Amino acid sequence: MGIELLGGRILAPFFGSSVHIWGSIITVFMLSLSFGYLLGGKLSTKNASLSKYGLIFLIASVMVLPIVLFAQPIMTFIFTHIEDSRYGSLLASTALFFIPTIILGMISPYSVRLLVTDSEKSGQVAGILYFVSTLGSALGTIITSFYFVLAFDVNTIITAFALTLGALGTLAILLHKIVNTHKEPAHA
Amino acid sequence: MLKYLLLLATVFSAPVVSKVIHQERSLYRNIIVEQNDNLRCLKFNTKSSKSSQSCMYTDNPNKLVFNYTKLVFSSLLLIDNPKNVLIVGLGGGTLSNIIHQLYPAAQIDNVEIDPAVIKVARDYFNFIEADNISAKVQDGRIFIKRAALKKQTYDWIILDAFNGDYIPEHLLTKEFFTEVKSILAPKGIIAANTFSSSKLYQHESATYHSVFGDFINVSREKRSNRIILAGYTHLPSESQIQQRIKTLNPQLAPYGVDMQSLSEYLQYTKNNQDWPSDTKVLTDQYSPANLLNF
What we know:
Number of domains of chain B: 2
Number of strands of chain A: 0
Oligomer: heterodimer
Shape of chain B: globular
CATH class of the largest domain in chain B: Alpha Beta
Structural class of chain B: alpha/beta
Strand order of the largest sheet of chain B: 7-6-5-8-9-11-10-12
Number of helices of chain B: 10
Number of helices of chain A: 6
């Protein structure tokens, strides 16, 4: 949500602040989240593990970075080639946000897979996950729009998001390793 | 008790009550046209008089109501006979109308994001349209970016897109002003209706200064409406200014604009910066203009 919110800020210099900018951004985010859910669910059926989960975070972290690094040339190119700012903004938000948001969308269903141990409680686990992720979105939205934009550059905020994702991913992978090394002697 | 009675009396004896003669909800806001005796005003969002965007005396449409609109004409102390004029933010179309009457041959391009505002300007504020007057529905930033690509230039650019309640933040950044500068003709001038109070005053000043160098603040007194004049390469001499006042005064008198007093409101920022030198410049990366405007 933090990134979605900054999306408007990123696109405005090239595509303005007309209502269709938000139309483009929200469309792309919803579309890519939906694909992300599907992919994340599919992936969770194949040997789900904490380290694979961490890898999703790491990939998301890397995929967010092009927003910082290449937004200007990408938007300049689209701006000069597409006259209509509706389709220009749709294409630009697709180019910038589609892939990272798909990957971020994979996190939720994968989390369900990792946390559900008892099918009786699957509904409750999903409920807690929805609660945490939606609450996180709400907090991300308000903190970004109320405070972050007042203190930091847009690129700094997005880089910080990327670093946080990267750190969480690394943490998950390390945790997986630690858990496994503890397990192995027991197996042997 | 007496105080309350008096208060009641004033309320009930208010001689004229403003009447809403048109109201519509546009893509961006509520638009209200109010008539109060001879005064017709275009308002956004609320009924409070604070948010009046544009007003017109129906019995004398030429006479300017707002002080800041008058201040815009101080631009003419710095340039001669503008031929291409760009106005970002149409409002009631007052500026476009007057400039057309002053310079009938000039090409005037109006850019307005809200199509409903253009319609209301036409229907209620006598917005004049002709072959050399255009009103385009577009975001100002996009219009200017496209104009730059087409290598179009203007010798008078008026930025009037802020409505007081909400600031389009992408129209108040260093990058935006750089784009505006790129479509300014040599010897042209930029006049921007800007913020006079709040922390934004300093940030806006610093941002203008970072792109244009020294500029001119035009305001009647400190902390009232200010117009920024920027983009000039050299300043006219005192005698040139006097000459222009002489020519312009009779032309602008019908609109209630007195060039002599306008010339006295010019405050040069050269050696006279009224903002701290470490004020943060607003950029596309950092533009919390609405949060600073308190």
